[in-house]
Amino acid sequence: MKRIVVLTGAGISAESGIRTFRDANGLWNSYRIEEVASPVAWERDPQMVLEFYNMRRKQLFEVEPNSAHYALAELEQKFDVQIITQNVDDLHERAGSTNVLHLHGELKKVRSTADERLVYTLDRWELKLGDLCEKGSQLRPHIVWFGEEVPNIMPATMMVKRADLFVVVGTSLKVYPAAGLIHLVPYSVPKYLVDPEAEPDRFVGNLVVIREKATAGMKRLKSEL
Q: What's CA 127's distance to the chain center, in Å?
């Protein structure tokens, strides 16, 4: 069975109604990055950080996967599909994808500030100051903040190196280290880049560019595969 490795970004979730960070009306226009998504922000004003992620989590409980998410899940009927996502939502899982690696954390999970190995699933949208782990320490969003290491980048690296086909959906490949993964795929492996702002890369071999939003692009790609 052919192994399809897929890298997804904010564009695939945007069509479900989740605001992106870098678009003209993105979330970073309402907040400064250092105020809500860094260890320094957490130390300075944990309440603001919690409120920011509570709003994002509340929105996540209100949206549903779209046809692009379902198309990727349906590919599992004929292929070994492995998804690497930059997104912190759970829309891939809710659509039925069974092999999803989150590079930047998961919005519906929280972890201990004393022991990062203690990770819990949150069944509500609100995380408050005073919500503690089993060791008695404050819980924080299970999110990779700016300035923190991306622990899943190594497993992602191994996945892309073993791909029989590589697909990028909903990202213009501007956020590193995730953007560098396409350069680790063997040159001869077929690659597809699905994004309205997608541009050819002369250093990436065997690349097909589909300048469509995720839903339209995945419909076309699924039919081709």
A: 21
